[in-house]
């Protein structure tokens, strides 16, 4: 059973985004970024209130900019998805989860070490260059539901 409703077009969006955001971190890194995408579609709180679909997540605008930099600046995002990324995208919609991305709603690639918080949200862990952050306890219960 899928964690979120999706279409083949959504699979393509996820596939293109995970490649654009994490291709250099291998398949596991791409899966983790994909998990954050799904988590955002599931979380009905904080920055993600009323962001319900994969398309909403990918094209979400925060503070006047796209939440995913690759939408605005990423050449890879606008390249066709490859089958390997489509397979990974299907895994995340069908329930793939792993720390540190299991409940994470945010990630970023800092120039140095991962800070203990990012915009007030606690550090959940790091995978290669990406730092992952979960919502503060009791601020987003829906992020902690499967």
Would you give an account of this structure?
The chain has helices spanning 8-22, 26-42, 54-58, 69-73, 83-93; strands at residues 61-62, 65-66, 106-108, 117-118, 121-127, 130-133. Helix 1 (8-22) crosses helix 5 (83-93) and helix 2 (26-42) packs across helix 5. The protein has a four-stranded antiparallel sheet, covered by helices on one side. It contains five helices and six strands; from the N terminus they run H-H-H-E-E-H-H-E-E-E-E. A hairpin with a 2-residue loop joins strand 5 and strand 6 (130-133). It is globular, with a radius of gyration of 14 Å. It has 146 residues and is of the alpha+beta class.
Topology:
Elements: H1 8-22, H2 26-42, H3 54-58, E1 61-62, E2 65-66, H4 69-73, H5 83-93, E3 106-108, E4 117-118, E5 121-127, E6 130-133
Antiparallel strand pairs: 1-2, 3-6, 4-5, 5-6
Helix pairs in contact: 1-2, 1-5, 2-5
Q: Number of helix segments?
A: 5
Order of helices and strands: HHHEEHHEEEE
Alpha-carbon distance between the two ends: 11 Å
- Secondary structure tally: strands: 6
The mean pLDDT is 94
Rg from Cα = 14 Å
Going by helix content, strand content and strand pairing, the class is: alpha+beta
Shape: globular
- The neighbouring-strand order within the major sheet is 3-6-5-4
Low-confidence stretches: none
The biggest sheet, with number of strands, parallel, antiparallel or mixed sense and barrel status, is: 4 strands, antiparallel
What proportion of the residues is helical, as a percent range?
25-40%
Strand residues, percent: 5-15%
């Amino acid at each position: 059973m899928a964690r979120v409703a999706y279409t083949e077009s959504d699979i393509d969006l996820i596939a293109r985004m995970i490649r654009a955001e994490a291709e250099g971190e291998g398949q596991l890194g791409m899966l983790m970024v994909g998990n954050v995408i799904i988590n955002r579609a599931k979380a009905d709180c904080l920055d993600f209130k009323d962001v319900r679909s994969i398309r909403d997540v990918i094209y979400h605008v925060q503070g006047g900019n796209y939440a995913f930099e690759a939408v605005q600046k990423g050449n890879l995002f606008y390249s066709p998805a490859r089958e390997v990324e489509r397979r990974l995208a299907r895994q995340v919609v069908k329930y793939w989860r792993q720390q540190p991305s299991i409940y994470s709603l945010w990630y970023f690639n800092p120039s140095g070490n991962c800070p203990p918080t990012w915009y007030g949200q606690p550090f959940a862990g790091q995978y290669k260059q990406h730092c992952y952050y979960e919502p503060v306890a009791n601020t987003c219960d829906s992020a902690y539901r499967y």
